[in-house]
Design brief:
Two copies of one chain form a homodimer. By secondary structure, chain A is of the alpha+beta class. The first copy, chain A, contains six helices and twelve strands. The first copy, chain A, binds a DNA duplex through helix 5.
Chain lengths: 224, 224
DNA sequence: CGCCCCTTTGAAGCATATCAAACCGCGTGG
DNA sequence: CCACGCGGTTTGATATGCTTCAAAGGGGCG
C-alpha cells in the first residue's frame, strides 16, 4: 500500500465539489495496475484524482470482474459510509491522487465537525447512486453495440468532448465495465468505425475521434 | 395518480429507519399494476410500504425494462435528492403505502429543519447505493442460474427466512430484475427444484420452500 | 532486432433468447 | 354447476448474439 517512492506533499485546498478549503490533502502516486485500496479494507481516506485514471471493481472468486466506475481527473472516490471499502480501486495508468482523512473531511470524531458540509457528501453519494442506477439498465437490457456506444458517449462527456479522446483503459477494462468480453468490445468499435461514426487516430487504438455524435447517440439508445 | 377510492388516513408515527416521530404520514392504496409515481415526475413524497409490494424500474422506448429494486413491507422508497424521480414505481400487487412530504421529512424549506436527521437519509441512500453496486456485478458477470439463486436468497433474507416464501412478483418481474427472460427464470427455477434445492407449495408457483439454503448459496456464488 | 502486450479478426461453440404449444388455476358468465 | 377464457407458468424446438478459442499483426521498449 505505502510506496516509498511516492511523494507526499501536503496541500491546503479543495477539489471542486467540496466546499470547505481548510482540509489537509496529501499527494500520492500510484503506478499503473497497483491498487489504491482493496475491498473490505477500512476506509480511512477519501481520494481526489489529480492525474491519471482509476477503476473501482468487484471480483468473484473465479476471477470474473465487474468495474463499477472509472474515475478521471477531478473525480472524488473512496468515500464510504460504512467505514469499509466496498470495492477495490486500482490505478489504470500511472496516477496521482490527493488523499484526505475521512474524519477530517466529514468531521465525525473530531472537534471541527462538518469540515465539509454533509450536503457535499450527499451530493457525491447521490451522483454515484444515479450512475449505478443508469448502469443497471445498460448491463441488464442493452446489447453490445448499445453498450459500447453509451460508453463512448459517457467518456466523451466526462473528457469534455475533446477533439481526440484518449482512453486510459484497455479493451478488457471496457469489457469488464460493460459486462462483455474484450473481443466483443473490439468488434463493436470496428463496426462503429466502419459506419464512420468514429475513427482511430494514428495506429494506437486508444485515441478516438467521434465523427458523428448524433448518430452515436442513436446507436446508444435504439430506445429511451 | 389520485384515486378517490383510496383511504387517506393521517398518522403520526415513524417507520423503522427514520428516527423522529412527529411527521405526518398519509395512507394510500394502490391497485396492482398501477403506478405510484413516474420517472421524471417531481418528487414530492417519500413512501413507506405498509402492505404489498412495489417495483421501481426504468424503461427503454422499445419496452425493454430493468427493475432496479423490489420494495416490501417496511421498506422506504421514493426519496430523491434531485427533486425528480429517476424511476417509475409500480404496485406489483394491491399495496398500501404511507406517504410523507419530502420537506416535512427532510426539512428543506420549512422552519423545522432536520425533522429527520440527515444521517437517516444518508443511511437510506447508502443502502440503495450498496444494493445497486452489488446488482451491477450480478447483472454484468453472473449466469442465469447464479442470478436466480441470488434473487431467491435476497428475497428469503428480506422476508426473514419464512418457512414458505410467497413471492408477490411474477416470472417476468423477476426476469426484468435479473436481466433475463421469463422463460430462462422458469427454467432455472425448474433446475433448482430438480436438484431439490427448492420446492413449490401447492400448485401455485409463487409459494416456494427453500429446502437447502447452503446449497443455494453455493449456486449463487460459484464464486465470491 | 526481438519480445511482449494489446488489439483485431475469424471460426466454432454455447448460453440465453425467441417462438411455440400445452397445462393449470381461477374468475366469469351461461 | 360447468364451460370458457385468460393470465401465468412450464417445457420444447430453434435461432442468435455473444463468448471462447485461435491466430496474426502492430507498436513500444529493452
Amino acid at each position: 500500500m505505502i510506496d516509498p517512492a511516492n511523494s507526499n506533499t501536503p496541500h491546503r485546498s479543495a477539489p471542486s465539489g467540496l466546499s470547505k478549503t481548510d482540509v489537509l490533502w496529501s499527494e500520492f502516486k500510484h503506478q499503473r495496475d497497483t491498487s489504491v485500496f482493496e475491498e473490505a479494507e477500512p476506509a480511512e481516506y477519501v481520494y481526489h484524482v489529480r492525474d491519471g485514471a482509476v477503476r473501482t471493481c468487484k471480483r468473484l472468486s473465479d476471477g470474473r470482474r465487474q468495474i463499477s466506475a472509472f474515475h478521471l481527473p477531478g473525480d472524488i472516490f473512496g468515500f464510504e459510509n460504512s467505514g469499509f471499502h466496498r470495492f477495490t480501486a486500482e490505478a489504470i495508468i500511472d496516477t496521482t491522487v490527493w488523499m484526505a482523512r475521512r474524519q477530517d473531511l466529514f468531521g465525525e470524531h473530531t472537534g471541527l465537525n462538518d469540515a465539509v458540509a454533509p450536503k457535499d457528501m450527499m451530493k457525491l453519494i447521490t451522483r454515484s447512486l444515479q450512475h449505478a442506477e443508469d448502469h443497471l439498465l445498460l448491463l441488464g437490457r442493452q446489447n453490445s453495440l448499445e453498450k459500447v456506444a453509451a460508453f463512448l458517449l459517457e467518456m466523451d462527456l466526462r473528457l469534455q468532448k475533446p477533439d481526440v479522446m484518449v482512453l486510459p483503459m484497455n479493451r478488457r477494462d471496457i469489457a469488464d465495465y460493460l459486462g462483455l468480453t474484450l473481443e466483443t468490445v473490439s468488434r463493436s468499435l470496428s463496426m462503429l468505425r466502419q459506419q464512420e461514426i468514429l475513427d482511430f487516430v494514428g495506429q494506437t487504438q486508444r485515441k478516438i475521434v467521434l465523427c458523428d455524435r448524433p448518430k452515436l447517440g442513436l446507436v446508444a439508445r435504439s430506445a429511451d
